[in-house]
Design a protein that fits this description.
This protein is α+β, with helices and mostly antiparallel strands and 327 residues long. 42% of the residues lie in helices and 20% in strands. It starts with 7 loop residues before the first strand and ends with a helix.
Length: 327
Amino acid sequence: MAQGTSDFALYDPAFGGCDGLFVPKRSKGHAMYDVQREWDAGIIVFKGEQMTSAHQSVLLAICAQTARDGFLIRDNEVDMEARQAVLGLSDLLDDVDMSFLEVSAYDLLLDAGMGVGGKDYKALIGLLHEMSTVSIYREVPGRKKRISPLIQFPKAFDGDRLPIRLNWRLAASIFGQQNVRVSLNERRNLETPIAKIAHCWFSCFIREGQSLMAGKGASLNTLTSHVWGRRPASDAVLRKRRTMLKKALQDEVGQLEGWGVVPDDRRRGVWHISRPKQSPNGNDFHFPTPSEHERFMEGIQEGRRSARAVFEADLPPIQKHSESDLS
């Protein structure tokens, strides 16, 4: 790990649950496709140009740096106008809560796992400008509809520090609302965009020290939709995606220390994923002992028995229904 990099990012799980917000590869100019999710009795919708794992890496780096050096701004603070001037905005008061960060490009590049050369700096600025065009729509029955940019980053700025405003949802997550930890140390050890997006999704929906779906696992088809989103694709493309995801799980996510990636030996296409538990007194992860790993495997077996029991309970009426259809 490079000196000074962040260990983890605090992230809004609602963002992690919006399949297709970030995809491994995009066609330039393509808009997002049906990126939305029900959350907290309402709905969250994202619109804008399709983003990739590179955008996700930068967003997680911004979240990490905001937790370290940024701060929350409220509409009654005296420096609102000054921050608005720095960002070149006229609508800063539209969001009650937001976060503001001034960070060096070098620190952001390191946290995002990018290089630190001139081309990397240019790529970073381009990613920030593209992320500024993405909008979040939040609608809850009985409340005012809210629209907010994903981030706000000025087209021009003075000095060598980047002024960045995070949207109200991520700001709330970082400064006290519901959040999850995404290990940037682990992410920087991953090579492919597929593995990075899958790792972030697992980090949002597997509790530390536990396994996916309480040991029941998930099918490769389901996991594929979480990585590539809902955009329609041919059967041949879907087969290729499943193959690539399987390789990413085995060769990358499964090689992270403390992670468990186990294919189900009875249910074809089902995978069991577990993540390590974080130690209470620091940012390092506690890796499972042999006994904890044994309990993880026992949980998988229990999930199999439970699924089998449900299947057998439903089997008689299914058989009867089939017989009546054939008569």
